[in-house]
Amino acid sequence: MADQRWHGCVVPDGLLYDVGMNVWVRLSGDEAVLGMTDVAQTMGGRMVAVSWKKTGRTYLRGRSLAVIESAKWVGPFPTPLTGELLEVNDASFAADIAVANRDPYGSGWLARLRASDLAAERGCLVDGAAAFAHYRAMIDERGIRCYRCAD
Predict the structure, then answer these.
(1) Which helix (H) or strand (E) element contains residue 89?
(2) Which residue segment(s) compose the domain that 110 sits in?
(3) Staple partner for 112: which of 5, 41, 74, 87, CB 3.0–4.6 Å?
(4) What's the CA gap between 48 and 96, in Å, rounded?
(5) Can you give the pLDDT at residue 56?
(6) Is 147 inside a domain boundary?
(7) Residue 151's pLDDT is what?
(8) Residue 34 and residue 78: Cα distance in Å, rounded?
(9) pLDDT for 57-105, tens place per residue?
(10) Is the pLDDT of residue 43 over 80?
(11) Distance CA 41, CA 43 (A)
């Protein structure tokens, strides 16, 4: 997976993105791992708490799978796909609440779900090249400089 970078912000090529929700998607069949983009974790600042939604339930596209509280922001982590929430990354966040600030595309993933309407909703996602073009313009417009939290 190649990384595209702009002002410290990373957008990996091998993922899909809902740029309106600032969420990345790693698909494997009908299962999807979801996380916050590097730009999203930077805009929010250092995370301080995450409240998870219940697994085993179906959530519609746009609904919250978690509530994230950071140094600058409190808000939902929306799902870009309708589906059953299979797993949340509560163990990693319990061990290191800033895991998504340190590694947003790896160990900082937030949720795993089984997509139930992938054929219809796949069109809402863009590839890494399109996401990079979107984020590059957004970074320039808002003066964003991405960073990763340190110990």
Answers:
(1) none
(2) 3-139
(3) 87
(4) 10
(5) 97
(6) no
(7) 46
(8) 10
(9) 999 999 999 999 998 889 999 999 999 999 999 999 999 999 998 899 9
(10) no
(11) 6
Calculated CA dihedral for residues 10, 13, 19, 22, nearest 10 degrees: -50
**Cα angle for residues 4, 26, 122 (degrees, 5° grid):** 100
Residue type at 53 in one-letter notation:
K
CA-CA-CA-CA torsion sign (10, 14, 17, 23):
negative
Structure tokens at 50: 């995450």
The DSSP element (H or E) to which 1 belongs, if any, is: none
- CA-based nearest residue to 78, from 13, 6, 19: 19
**Paired strand residues for 24:** 17, 35
Q: Is residue 149's pLDDT more than 60?
A: no
Structure tokens, 69: 């509280």
CATH number at residue 85: 2.40.50.100
